[in-house]
Write a sequence for this structure.
């Protein structure tokens, strides 16, 4: 048994955990699967990031086909991911921290995205995968990002934006990250 499995078994035996608590413990440990511990995820390098998270190193050069493949792999593992978009217009510090999650996604071709930076948050939007791929490719090709932070924490609990507001955000990101 690996260390995570041992922790779960010990916790289940020693502490009278409810099924819900055990499921939450399993959920928190899912990102530490063997492929991640081996620093190789379907041929992609996994590193420890400066924020003590796991980062998937983006290949150079990154093209839309490769970015789609990465997004599909992250989706298949039911993970969230985060990027720092230095180009996003911010009312405070430079850029915005964007967290993408399938948990609150409206359909299979979209991700729920929360955005914020020191002192502000922008809500939760429905962002099309095609826009996300374009954003990641643009940021990587211009040297703004070198990896995607993998995350198993819930998306921020910002108010959900309307369909119209999500469409406006898709357009804003699309225009910001055109080739």
């Amino acid at each position: 048994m690996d260390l995570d499995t041992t922790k779960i078994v010990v916790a289940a035996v020693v502490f009278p955990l409810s099924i819900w608590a055990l499921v939450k413990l399993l959920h928190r440990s899912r990102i530490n699967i063997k492929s991640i511990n081996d620093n190789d995820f379907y041929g992609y390098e996994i590193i420890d990031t400066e924020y003590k998270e796991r980062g998937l190193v983006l290949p150079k050069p990154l093209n839309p086909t490769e970015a789609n493949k990465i997004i599909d792999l992250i989706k298949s593992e039911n993970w969230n991911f985060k990027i720092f978009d230095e180009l996003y217009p911010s009312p405070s510090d430079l850029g915005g921290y964007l967290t993408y999650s399938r948990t609150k996604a409206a359909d299979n071709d979209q991700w729920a995205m929360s955005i914020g930076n020191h002192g502000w948050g922008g809500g939760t939007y429905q962002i099309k995968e095609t826009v996300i791929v374009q954003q990641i490719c643009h940021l990587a090709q211009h040297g703004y990002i070198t990896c995607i932070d993998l995350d198993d924490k819930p998306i921020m609990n910002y108010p959900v934006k309307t369909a119209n507001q999500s469409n406006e955000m898709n357009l804003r990101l699309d225009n910001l990250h055109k080739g």
